[in-house]
Automatic annotation (TrEMBL):
It is found in: Cell membrane. This is G-protein coupled receptors family 1 profile domain-containing protein. PANTHER family: G-PROTEIN COUPLED RECEPTORS FAMILY 1 PROFILE DOMAIN-CONTAINING PROTEIN, NEUROPEPTIDES RECEPTOR. It is a multi-pass membrane protein. Its main location: membrane. It comes from Caenorhabditis briggsae. Pfam families: 7tm_1. Keywords: Cell membrane, G-protein coupled receptor, Membrane, Receptor, Transducer, Transmembrane, Transmembrane helix. Residues 2-316 form the G-protein coupled receptors family 1 profile domain. The keyword Mitochondrion does not apply. Gene3D superfamilies: Rhodopsin 7-helix transmembrane proteins. GO terms for cellular component: plasma membrane.
């Protein structure tokens, strides 16, 4: 619901869909929906005993591929959003080439192709595995195929699971998380730097009443001279600490800063929700602890991993003033369009000329 709501808001609002970062957000919402769909399919197959893919080799391969493909795209779209915000805040010369729709579409397409290439091996190696129940009966689950050998080794061995887990952790968590932490640190510093300048009043418009007495006129002249001296100092070359930041921040709109703040919060939340799950997977594959406490923490880390796909867009919507402002009008407009359609008037006016007499 959150992903669909954000996607509708972005695609139906004229100003929101013009932002470069929203191309990444649209892709993120679509792939998050597809990932959560695989979670629902897996849950239904495992706990509701619905034979959705656990009895089909092809179904197992496709669901495994779709889950890993979607997760990879989600992670790197969040990384691209962080980089895009840092470029908007620092305004380097490459901004006019990087912060464009053409560049965003090209990069997004490149990551989609990369994800397909990286996880295409699942169509060859994923498959059904058998395990025995406590009553002696056998059941199958979707894992690594028992009939495939890779360089002379069976792919369903435990060390192969460990290799694939490390590979997935590096490209889907370690590298993106380090990148997001570094980029968000710079963006947060820049955001606070710009906010200090805006709140200092240097870039604000001053409204002054006309003086009525000679004393008020003299006081106004003194205040104006003091204000101009302060402004000249802040914008002068002598004040090297604030010169560049004031000039660049003067080009930023208030909406840019608000959007940057909300996206910094969203991308930082991704790191907080995603890293514990992969860390616990490594611990599980390496040491195989069996304590009840570890199993509980392991389960909670999985819940947080699934939660970030669902919660990020709720945070984006309710932390972004523009999104909150557009939420109710968009919902009402969609409701009127799809549920409360009126009979078309076929070119006739609904009011009569007699109403104006």
């Amino acid at each position: 619901m959150g992903n669909s709501m954000a996607l509708i808001l972005i695609r139906t609002n004229f100003w929101l869909k013009r932002l470069t970062s929203n191309i990444y957000l649209c892709t993120l919402s679509i792939t998050s929906c597809s990932f959560l769909l695989t979670v629902v399919i897996s849950w239904s197959d495992t706990y509701l005993r619905l034979p959705l893919y656990s009895e089909s080799e092809l179904g197992c391969k496709f669901v495994s591929f779709l889950a890993h493909f979607s997760d990879f795209i989600c992670v790197w779209m969040i990384s691209l959003i962080s980089c895009d915000r840092m470029i908007v805040l620092y305004r380097p010369r490459i901004r006019k080439w990087v912060c464009t729709r053409k560049f965003a579409i090209t990069v997004t397409s490149g990551f989609v192709v990369t994800s397909v290439i990286l996880y295409s091996w699942l169509f060859a190696l994923a498959g059904l595995q058998k395990y025995k129940m406590m009553d002696g009966s056998e059941r199958s689950f979707c894992g690594l195929s028992e009939d495939v050998n890779w360089f002379g080794y069976k792919v369903n061995e435990n060390y192969m699971y460990f290799i694939f887990t490390v590979f997935d952790t590096v490209i889907c968590t370690l590298i993106p998380s380090i990148l997001i932490i570094i980029v968000n640190s710079f963006s947060t510093y820049r955001y606070h730097q710009c906010m200090k300048i805006y709140t200092a009043g240097v870039l604000r418009v001053r409204f002054v009443r006309a003086p009525t007495t000679e004393q008020q006129a003299q006081q106004l002249d003194d205040d104006t001279i003091q204000f101009e001296d302060t402004k000249k100092y802040l914008l002068s070359t002598d004040n090297t600490n604030s010169n560049n930041s004031t000039t660049n921040c003067g080009k930023l709109r208030s909406s840019d800063l608000q959007l940057s703040r909300s996206l910094i919060i969203v991308t930082s939340t991704f790191v907080a929700f995603n890293v514990p799950s992969y860390a616990m997977r490594i611990v599980q594959a390496t040491f195989k602890p069996q304590s009840t406490t570890f199993q509980f923490i392991y389960y909670v880390s999985y819940l947080s991993y699934y939660l970030h796909h669902a919660a990020l867009f709720y945070m984006y919507i309710f932390w972004s003033p523009q999104m909150k402002k557009q939420l109710k009008p968009t919902a009402v407009r969609l409701l009127e369009c799809y549920c409360l359609k009126t009979v078309p008037d076929f070119g006739h006016r609904s009011t009569s000329t007699q109403d104006f007499i």
